[in-house]
Write a structure and sequence with these properties.
There is one protein chain. The chain is an alpha/beta fold. It has a single domain, classed as 3-Layer(aba) Sandwich (Rossmann fold), CATH 3.40.50. It is about 50% helix and about 15% strand. It has eight helices and five strands; from the N terminus they run H-H-E-H-E-H-H-E-H-E-H-E-H. The protein has a five-stranded parallel beta sheet with strand order 2-1-3-4-5, sandwiched between helices. Strand 1, helix 3 and strand 2 form a beta-alpha-beta unit. Helix 3 runs parallel beside helix 8. The longest helix is centred in the C-terminal third of the chain and has 21 residues. The N and C termini lie far apart (about 65 Å).
Length: about 200
């Protein structure tokens, strides 16, 4: 049997570091700004496009699944208008066609140009903030007049300076960065589910 004497201290350190990233004051400010953009997008019938690579692709798909099903749907305290949202990762044939026939750098920008209209929203997810295909899609989004949000970490990379709202996890760990992105996904889903429309 392997010696696990180091596991408990490792676990305690990992949890401390994760909690510290979540308690960063500016993180809440960024999430609040993102929530306002998403609420406006729902009210105006805008489409919200999500995309990322690897673990971030999984988070993009997860986020779309959650807000499309829960926020405004039958799970909401006040069922009503649902979100129009799409993960650009989920069309695998289309993604491989763009990668094979054009370039991997265009796998998100190409479909975005075909599907989005001015006023729509993009949520670009990149742990490093330097994924070329994510940056290319954000550049396309800005040219098209879309609202841009970035979820990143490890200093924010190039993505931080390209988007209107950047949520940069204050950690150099990809694991903690992706942990926080998923927690933000669930936090926003819960808020958008429970958010009550203003009294009229």
């Amino acid at each position: 049997m392997s010696d696990l004497s180091s596991f408990r201290p490792y676990l305690a350190r990992y949890v401390r570091e994760a909690v510290a990233t979540l308690e960063a004051p500016y993180l809440g400010e960024a999430v609040e700004r993102i929530a306002a953009i998403l609420l406006r997008a729902r009210a105006e019938d805008r489409t919200v496009f999500f995309f990322g690579n690897g673990g971030s692709a999984s988070t993009a798909s997860h986020f779309v699944t959650d807000i499309a099903k829960v926020a405004g749907g039958t799970g909401a305290k006040t069922p009503g208008k649902r979100f129009r949202c799409l993960s650009l990762n989920d069309n695998v044939p289309g993604l491989t066609a763009w990668a094979n026939d054009v370039s991997y750098a265009e796998v998100f920008a190409g479909p975005l140009r075909a599907l989005a209209t001015p006023g729509d929203v993009v949520v670009a997810i990149s742990g490093s903030g330097n994924s070329p295909n994510v940056l290319a899609a954000v550049a396309a989004a800005k040219e098209m007049g879309l609202t841009t949000i970035g979820l990143t970490g490890i200093g924010g990379g190039k993505l931080k300076g390209m988007v209107e709202v950047a949520l940069v996890v204050p950690s150099d760990s990809m694991q903690h960065t992706e942990d926080v992105h998923l927690i933000v996904c669930h936090l926003l889903t819960a808020y958008l589910r429970d958010e009550q429309p203003p009294a009229r």
